[in-house]
Amino acid sequence: MNAYVGTPTSRVDGRAKVTGAAKYAGEFPADGLVHGFIVEATIPRGRIARLDTSAALKVNGVLDVLTHANRPPLAGNDEAWKDEVAPEKGSPFRPLYDDTIKFSGQPIALVVAEDWETAKFAATLVRVEYKPSSFATDLEGERSSAAEMDKPLKPRGNAAAALARAAVRHEADYVIPTEHHNPMELFATTAVWDGGGKLTVYDKTQGVQNVHKFLCAVFGKKPDDIRVVSPYVGGAFGSGLRPQHQVVLATLAALALKRSVRVVLTRQQMYGLGYRPMTIERVGLGAKSDGTLDAVTHEAIAITSRYEDFARNDTGWAEQLYKSPNSRFSHKLVHLDVATPCDMRAPGAASGVCALECAMDELAVALKLDPIELRLNCYSDRDQSENLPYTSKQLRECYARGAEAFGWSRRNPAPRSMHDNHELVGWGMATGVWEALQMPVAVRIALTSNGHAEVSCAASDIGTGTYTVVAQVAADALGLPIENISVRLADSTLPQAPVEGGSWMAASSAHAVLAAAEEVRKELLSLAGKMPGSPLANAELADTVLIDGNIAGISDHSRAVSIADAMRHGNIERIAKEKLNHFDEDKKHARNTHSAVFAEVKIDEQLGVIRVTRIVSAVAAGRILNTKTGRSQIMGGVVWGIGMALHEETVMDHRFGRIMNANIAEYHIPVNADVHDIDVIFVDEPDAHINKLGVKGLGEIGIVGVPAAIANAVYHATGKRIRRFPITLDKLLG
Amino acid sequence: MAEAAHQIAERIPINLVVNGVGRTLNLVPWTTLLDALRDHLALTGTKKGCDHGQCGACTVLVDGRRVNSCLTLAVMMDGAEVTTVEGLASDGTLHPLQQAFIDQDAFQCGYCTSGQICSAAGLLAEGHARDAGEIRELMSGNLCRCGAYPNIVAAIQQAMGRP
Lengths: 734, 163
Hints:
heterodimer, A: Aldehyde Oxidoreductase, domain 4, Aldehyde Oxidoreductase, domain 4, seven-stranded mixed beta sheet, five-stranded mixed beta sheet, 31 strands, globular, B: alpha+beta, Ubiquitin-like (UB roll), DNA polymerase, domain 1, 2 domains, 5 strands
């Protein structure tokens, strides 16, 4: 029954991706397709005084220049612009809505031309005059204006008093810079004019139904007027959760011109989208002399825009990880003249746990304890905030297996004590934690009598492997070879799915497949049971299984009727069943994934060059549906962690409120030569509570803890504690 | 500004041999080889990730050498033989690199993959990379945001027939 689940099955969409056949949003052809190019604001706050498009309009091949002054109607109420994952509080940005400038890089005009080169050239001819207003973009400069979010975690005990009386205390600010997702694919939309005001919209998105609902609301369309499709997504990491500028502009232009329109952002323009917000993380830890925690405080001060309150859980993770009788958390926002931040891989946790885990390392040094020992001293078997046990938590095993694979016992704890020729060697570790979320998802299975099944769902595969895990689970549940399963995803007309994010899609889609497959089996049993002399005449549904192309007794597979025979007897060619799966509400358990991350760095102190030569990531995330793609996902998260530790930073010139490194030569992400050995260990973690398959999800947990493990290794190598990320060579030399 | 500056230049005829097939295009002179392939020949397997030669997603083989097609003007390539990811498999059999990328799970989203594979094909032809360290160094012009680098190295080693 488990021929595929739990195995290293290769990606079912692999062939399409290695041959160039996989089509992404900006690659779908259309008759008479025209191209839009965006003109952006160059000031962070003010109004457009004058927008002169006459020179652009004179260029041969230019069809129109859309601005706030001449655009077709757009919804005028915030509710229409609030997509499924928009912040609760605020008024979402509306491209080309009016003359207001809210952030530098904001789209203010769209030049539409017969070809892309012409549109791009003509966009340079649009002249803009502004009425600028005073602005602020510097979080640290505006720190005093930080305002508390309304929903902090409830405090326990008296953290301030406990911190004041602590035998050993550590308090520090850790600064996480703004980071941009930079998926390799440029954000793109091809809005295909189907006639009569109807559109097929190929969009780069993590949620086709989110975009569909949003476009219908913004443009006042009926659900049947717009279809959103996104079969392949060239990475997103959270940047495609909310509908982005280009989908609004392409749709707007298609409706204005009654033609098919493509809009592709440039790499530079993608820095006008959402980002991981710069955050000052202030962590306070108070320990008793026996090396246990008595107080935890964590305050985050993060950037948001002036028009929306974006905030994620940076600070509450200590409640999951470390026993302490006293704790206090707060999350504050500073409103600046920038675009609204958005979710970026492990939002909240990547930043907050980075600070917490660096602070734990500093506390371990102060206590003269091994950092693992400190963590085991205050290991929490309960989520302290909710006072709940976990559905499963094999974090102890992660520490043990990771330490063993890494060789942690050979570590000399003294900083600057380990060398490899001229290089200093540092070994550091950290804990990772993320939520194990699951959402309602519907799946349709259409089984044909030749033993082929089409499995369809609106969910996206952003490179995470959804196509593959859906195919694996369906093949096992239907008892068919995986080659007989075809998977259709990411079309808004397919069965319901939320956005692809939060690490919830593997568990959510897998259980929807199981639910739909059970409906198929029910139908097959009813057909098979009616056959003359059927071996399954009186069988209960729970006593049957689909296996090897048959419906059979669960304990005796020889009591079987072939799927083909059952369908032939029932005189049907096809069984199509759709089922919406809901997970049982479980208020008695906390649900999390965990990891222990070990990092080795080698540092040439004279040059300040830092290399991450080894990472061991031991992950406890329930049952792993696909050990090949799962390992890759964790590895990818680790690479992101290397970037966060050493490379990534969006740099703003606060005199102009503009990003200075809006490209991927100066915004550094890890390249091949930056990445060495990465060892991913999946710790066995049976989970009988979370869901039928015991699956948790892997998208985020891979990054959490990695930046701290590297920072702690840098301290161990050099004796220098860098608390302002990324750890670049100038900070080490300084 | 003079009116003439606002007019698009004359189109120029260009002959290319793309994946073994002769193609003639009439292009404005600033059209890159990348846009010629994607927008004018509908060969969208070659990807645009930055348009500035920073990411390598647009890597193709020109007369057997790997180049960033976004930094290459099509008019400069008149008469050249261009191989894109669509031209690597023959008669439905994947190129050893393509198969190795699947076997080693050397991609996730797939967007950098065409460039990685073409770049790796160029790398193998160059014959400079002997071990994992050299592969890493010589493949560092091709960014992968999903972070599949160790698997990309393993795939290239598989195709080289070397551990």
